Amino acid sequence: MKTNAIFATALLGFSTLIGSAVRAEEQVLNLYSARHYQTDEALYKEFTHRTGIVIKRIEGKEDELLERLRNEGGNSPADVFLTVDAARLAAAHELALFAPVRSPILEARIPAHLRTSDWFAFSTRARVIVYAKDAVRPDEIRTYNDLAKPSLRGKMCSRSGSHPYNLSLMAAIIAHHGEAAAENWAKGVVANFARPPKGGDTDQILAVASGECAVALANTYYLARLMRSNKPEDRKAMEKITVVWPDQAGYGTHINVSGGGVLKTAPHKEAAIKFLEYLASDQAQRHFADGNNEWPAVVGVKIDNPALSSLGKFKADKLPVGSLAMYRTKAQMIFDRVGYR
Ligand code: FE
Predict the structure, then answer these.
(1) Which residue ranges of the chain lie beneath pLDDT 50?
(2) Where are the domains of the chain?
C-alpha cells in the first residue's frame, strides 16, 4: 500500500514535469469550425489530453468562416477547417483552400466514398422523409420521387431550396437521374408545397406532427434530438410521425456529411493532420454518434445511442461525396428555375 502511494506520488511528479516541458514549447492548432454542437467541446479536450496540442478554436457560421478564410488568404492562421454539408466542403475545395493530405490512417479508416484528395467526412447523416401517420398511406411514399406525386398536392413542407442540405440532395438526384428528370422532380415538389419554404428541419418535422402538412424532409440527427428531448411535447410530436428511408430498392437513402480538411496555408500542418487522424479514431467517432446523433464515418465503430439505434439499419447511397460537389451549382439553378426558394 505504502509503496504504491510513494510510486503514485513519484509518477505524479514525473507527469507534472512532462506537462511543464510541453507548456514551454506549447504546440497549438488553429481550428476554424462551423460545427456548433456543444458536445464537441469534450472532443477537443481529449485531443489536447492525448497529444499536448492546444486547440484554438474560432467558431462561426459556415458561410462566414469560408468568407473569412478567403479574405485572410495566405495570412490565415487557420490549420483545419471543419464544417457540415458536402456542398460547403466542396466550395472550400473549389476555392483551393485545402491542401492535399496523404495519410495511411485516414485512408484506412475513412471509406473511399466518404473522402476526397483533400477533405474527409467524419460523420454521416441521412436525409429522410417524415410523414403524418394519419394523413398518408405507407405505400404512398417510398422514394424521393414520390414527393413529387400529384397525390401529395398541398401536403408538403420544406425548408429553403437554397439550403445546402436540399442542394446536396438535389445534386445526388441529378447525379443519379440526370438534369431533366431532376428538374421535373423539383417542379412536382414545388407544386406540392403546403406553404412557402421556411424554417429549419425541426420546424418541418413539427409542422408534420401538428398537421400543418403531411410530409417533409429532415436530417436524421434532428429526429434523434427530438426523440431524446426532455420536453414531453417533442416526444409526443415524434409519436405522430413515421420515418421513411427513401429509395431502399434503388440507390439508397441520400446521406450528407460533416467533415474537414487541412488548409493549404496551415502554419501547423503536422498537428493538423494529427487532428484529422484523431477525428477518425474510435473514441472521436463514438463521440459524433453519441453526442450529436450522427453515424460514424468509420465502419464498425460501436455506438451507444438508443435514439439512433431505434431508427434502425438502412441502405445508404454510396455516391462519392466529392461528386455531390459537381452538381451543386446545377442544383441551385434548377431550384431557381422552378421557384424552390
Ligand atoms: Fe443541421
Answers:
(1) 1-3, 5-22, 24
(2) 2-123+257-307, 125-254+316-338
